[in-house]
Amino acid sequence: MMAVSSLQEPSMPAATEGSDDLMSDFVVLPANDESIGFGPVAGSGPLEHLKLSLPQDDGSSLSTCSDDLTHQEAEERIAKVLEENTILKEKVAKSTAKIRQQFEAFTAWQKQLDKAQHALRAELAMAQLMLDEKTSAEAELQKQVQELAAERQALLEASRAVAAEHDEATKQAEAVQAVNNTIEDSMSFCDPVPGLLPSKDRAEMSLSQTMVKLHDEQSKTAQLTKKIEELTDKLERASRKTEEFKEIVAELSKKLYEADSRNTAFTSQATSKCAELETALLEKEALVRALQGQCESKVAEIDDLRRALLTAEKNCDRARRDYAELLHTWQEFENSNDAGERTFVRVERQSGVAASRQAEKHVQELAERDSQITTLKKDVEKLQKELELLPPLQAQVEV
């Protein structure tokens, strides 16, 4: 691009300073009173400090502000934004993976804890059922023992009654025997009178029946005693089993208490862990919102850079038009100058071609910036999708 320092003609105003890498410093003085001067080149890049004046009748001016960003700065800023976006995406991905890993570990631990509690409750229910069965069996045996004890007591009373009757019968037999002996002694000298003395066979029959009855009662008593002993042994075994089951129930109750204690501790840990996860989620949400704000600011900055590039392109087009007008004026002026001036015109034409190429290069860079902006927008949409995944994860953690 040509850099014009000054231009003074009757029909053209003076041009301001500019820059061109292809043009060297020189001054051309015409033969007449009119003069055209070209000063030194000053500038740090294409389209930098470009100021051209249009004719007086146009009334417009072409300029770019000194604070506009250059293409190199815009490219550096866009590269920096893309690098920051990549770093932020990596951080968000790592945080999301860590949160998912912690949630999966918490879910597995919760399932294992529920399974252990279910097994302990099943064992406790089984032990309680067996204890109830043993308690009912013990109550049934106790009832049978009480019934047998009552029956034994009745048999003992009957045995005592039979023994009393046996003693009474024995005493009666002894008395009868004594009377018989006395009668025999006293009647040894006389004949007995039939019907006046008791019958000896009848007394002996009553005594034998009493003995048989006593023997039967003793047999029944022995059987009942044996049965009571068996029931007592069975009751003792049932009592021992009951004690064993009580010990098992106590042990299971202890295990259940320990499990409840561990469950309480685990629940408190899970609550604290859920609080930590919730805090982490809130922090991540705040971080993602901040990152989203940064991304939006970067997108706005990129839009500003794109507008600056568009402004630069417009300025370049206007510079081309101004240059064409200047070149046309110079071609008119060329007819009155020497070969050195023709060389200047060729150099000016080459500068115009270079400016066109530079403008095309700027257009290509702008297209690349647009593609980078599109990529950045896609990354922002991906981050927003990851943000949408956070509420379901938080709900699962709360569950």
UniProtKB/TrEMBL annotation:
Organism taxonomic ancestry: Eukaryota, Metazoa, Ecdysozoa, Arthropoda, Chelicerata
Coiled-coil intervals, chain numbering: 127-158, 214-329
Keyword Metal-binding: no
GO molecular function: K63-linked polyubiquitin modification-dependent protein binding
Species assigned in the record: Amblyomma americanum (Lone star tick)
Record protein name field: Putative muscle myosin heavy chain
Chain intervals for the UniProt region annotation (Disordered): 1-20
Cellular component, GO annotation: cytoplasm; nucleus
One Gene Ontology term from the biological process aspect of the record: regulation of canonical NF-kappaB signal transduction
Coiled coil in keyword set: yes
Keywords, comma-separated and alphabetical: Coiled coil
InterPro entries: Optineurin/NFkB_EssMod
